[in-house]
Amino acid sequence: MKIFRITPALTAIPWGFVAVVLASVLVLPLGPAFGQGAGAEVKEPPTPKGADVFDLNLGQTRAFSRSLNFNLVGHSYFKDCPITQDARDEGVGAGINTVRVYDGIAYLAGYNGPPTMFGVCIADVSDPTNMEALSFVPCKAGTRCPYLRVNPDRKILVFGSGRNGANPNQPPPGVPTDSGWSFWDVSDPSNPVFLSHFSIAPNVSTHGMEIDDQFLYGCGKTTADMSRDELQIIDYSNPLAPVLVSTLHIQGQRAGEEFALQDQFNPNGTTPQIISCHEITIHKDRLYISYRDAGLVIVDVSDRSDPQIIGRLNYVPPYSGATPGGFNLGAAHTSTPIIFDPEEHPDLVVHTDEIFGCPPGFGRVIDVSDLKNPDVVSGDRDANLQIISSYRLPHISDVFDHDEGTFKCPAGQQSSHHMWVDHRSPSLFYNAWYDQGVRAWDISNPFLPREVGYYLSPKYASFGRVDRHTREVFQDPDTDLIYVTDGSGGGLTVLEWTGDIPENPPIPGAR
Predict the structure, then answer these.
(1) Does residue 337 sit in the same domain as residue 349?
(2) Residue 83: which of 115, 53, 61 has the closest Cα?
(3) If you compute the radius of gyration of the chain from its CA atoms, what whole number of angstroms results?
(4) Per the structure, how many domains does the chain have?
(5) Which SS3 state, helix, strand or coil, does residue 24 take?
């Protein structure tokens, strides 16, 4: 296998541009946007005429950003990763989806929309001011691979590959894609070694995933005639020969089945729901799955060979999921249990939607305390899960024209997306919010979530986009640094939280 190694490149900046930047730094305030606190609309970070937001140094990036209670520590476009020729022609860096960081090494899964990087770039980020790529693992031909996990103890990288026509490396005509799950030895991050690939149905998708020390829990199509992705549980005890242990799906996903009434249509009565396994989180033998328009699905995997749904919150309808016309993928995106005690099941789940319509997706706090004791689980699974609050950005979610009877939203993608809980307090989390950057939330009172900080990067808009593409957040528990990815070629941003860290966990929801 050919391994990609890098020599950092220096880019000269025209003196005229430097003058513009210096002038901007002198007149633009840093920190909170013009005195605004969290919860208010943040004025867009200004970009002086002639400035290229895909060619800024750290000082310029700081000057053209807006933040409250975050400090910008480092940034890299990772143009030294093998990005596509289209990305080079556009003058952008790597578009990145998932990031994981262990022992100063980052694993960066490339994003395909726009098509900037089809593979996993492995990088040294031990010095956030001087991050550099070490090696590159490509996606399977004709696929994208934007979702990854790393087993840091066993030094195994795992990622999914799903059909994608934008990958410049396509199979020969008539040859299907080898969709599935790939396993790599990353004991030496500069020289990753292929272990195996677990193939699923050809020409199908994979999506979100989670791993523990033995099992991979992934969203993918097991058969080509499925409507959309289901849960797959794969034993990788021997990473040279992974084994499918079991699957789980919602009735109606497989050929010959009919969706239950509540899973058929959106509130308009005509737009089909999108029922698909999307993202997975695990804690104490339970999976918390965002299942698009099927909502939050909680699965007991104490017996990996026989997973069982023990809770489900299905809120579409009355809420909307998939919207008619345009590009949309349904509702639920990420479901994260709020862990007070690692030895106990959680009382709360923070749950985000990803909706590109208007109004866009927002977040919910869900009480799941009735599932702590399996003896109380009844056949009516919805009865055990309750929404106790929502959190949103009112200026994009709640602007309603009463004369026209419609919501009004800014251009571009304004949806909530992926979130991450600060390991220092279960009451603090960070939410990637597409064009609205990163938003920090305090749920000390889960009935009243409070926005307590934000970071808006320069406007990394490329390939005709009008919005930034803030996708995922990950906190390294060893350094407390927060890593933020941009999907449009803006690379990786490193932040530190400078605001208050809530002392107590959230107060009880159910009472």
Answers:
(1) yes
(2) 115
(3) 22
(4) 2
(5) helix
